[in-house]
């Protein structure tokens, strides 16, 4: 572990600066809590620049410790450049405190906005689907890249939204790294780790995890976004607690609108283009949830299909905007 610490020495942040940034870990600054512990927002003076940060403070009562802490630091140090991965600022390993500091994405987690169709609009949701898939595709690695990761904990709480509603992937404490050359055949047996409602059923049954396990989790997240529902709701009836089987059932029956948030469905029903996008993206989400791993799509295929939808949406929006401007200009000239 000493050699690991030396490698990351340049990322160390004194505890004193983090205490100042979070007002001594004031509960008023708590913005979330996960398997790692509480997450605090704050303002950190870093090389003369005041930055909005989130500080994830390890709480050992959750059963995690040094391994998960260093796993996340290692992963984020490798992935610390693309636009759809949360950016690490540094960490603190001092006085038995283990804290990971990342840029704070102003909106918060995707989970906070799933059931808010007014604030988190339909078009923002469609775009978020693409950004999330792009992030997963990036960590999957490509030919010639130095890494390939299985995330193992993709869910709506580890996906953050910035001020422009662009999604970023975080929560790499459970990730597993391999070489990019081995990524297609990378299969490891381990203790089942993840979040209820998102875990690949094959992983649950066998303890075997692959990149296609993350594809399954993505399918759940896509349906969360489209339906405005959470992956698991303990207050629902037994057959409606878990979104994945519920969404699959209604997709197969052609009754997906029955489980979509009513206000979201109103937006879809009044816009033929939105309806078309919903159909396309729900088809992708359904394929990700295939029981057979081999039948789930590869991430580059998912990104390609979602990118087509985003581009189509952009062109349609630009056309409508241009039409309105031309119509307005024309009417003004003839007055």
TrEMBL record:
Signal peptide: none annotated. GO terms for cellular component: plasma membrane; plasmodesma. It comes from the Eukaryota. Residues 25-312 form the Protein kinase domain. GO terms for molecular function: ATP binding; protein serine/threonine kinase activity; transmembrane receptor protein tyrosine kinase activity. Coiled coil: none annotated. InterPro entries: ANXUR1/2-like, Kinase-like_dom_sf, Prot_kinase_dom. Keywords: ATP-binding, Kinase, Nucleotide-binding, Serine/threonine-protein kinase, Transferase. The keyword ATP-binding applies. SUPFAM superfamilies: Protein kinase-like (PK-like). This is Serine-threonine/tyrosine-protein kinase catalytic domain-containing protein. It comes from Artemisia annua (Sweet wormwood). The lineage of its organism: Eukaryota, Viridiplantae, Streptophyta, Embryophyta, Tracheophyta.
